[in-house]
Amino acid sequence: MEKLAEDFYQSAPDTVIVISPHLQEKTDSFSIGHTPSFKVSFKDFGDLETKLEFKHNIGLAYKIKESLETKIPVILSHEENLDHGSAVPLYYLTKMYRNVSVIPISYSLSTRQVHFQFGQAIREIIDSTLERVAVVASGDLSHCLKEGAPAGYSPRGREFDKLVRKFLVEKDVSAMLNLDESLVKEAAECGFRSILILLGIFDKINYEVELLSYQSPFGVGHLVANLRIK
Prior knowledge:
Layout: H1 2-11, E1 15-20, E2 30-33, E3 37-42, E4 47-55, H2 58-68, E5 74-77, H3 84-93, E6 101-106, H4 112-127, E7 133-137, H5 156-170, H6 173-177, H7 181-187, H8 192-201, E8 207-215, E9 222-229
Parallel strand pairs: 1-6, 1-7, 2-5
Antiparallel strand pairs: 2-6, 3-4, 8-9
């Protein structure tokens, strides 16, 4: 994350879109955060000192919502406090660069193809603006990588994490979209749909993938990767 923060600082984005599994309870609608600013606190995890605040790019967020609502179900969230799926990556990425607006987005219960199409539609909006926009696909991989893991243990967890890394590096979007449903379910993941949206955003773009780390100290797969436009 520190290496990624350096790249984030050097690219100096105007806005960062953060796709999180935890922004809202899952429904058939995607959710876009829509308040003047967003606050970050880790008090629920015992950290009473760390507090951050980010401005919101209301104009771009509403433009995304307006352009999508006739095609894909999208609602606005007025929750000011960011969920940990958004807060954790922002905490690391903005240590050296705070002058960035945030648009938090939560995925839905829709199909994988709809998530990919959602990403494609966001890309069209990004292309229509002169702003520099970064995108963060947040969420964990498998939650069942060893005994005592949050979702118990399943050997299929490591199989899922290995395939996701493989398909990302190979940029095999078709394989990712068609990954065995029973494998995805048994892996007990929460970041897969975030990745599908990200791949939709990068559709038909010449990009490279750099895997920066993969760890599972708590039986949960944590992958850090950088998708960079060539």
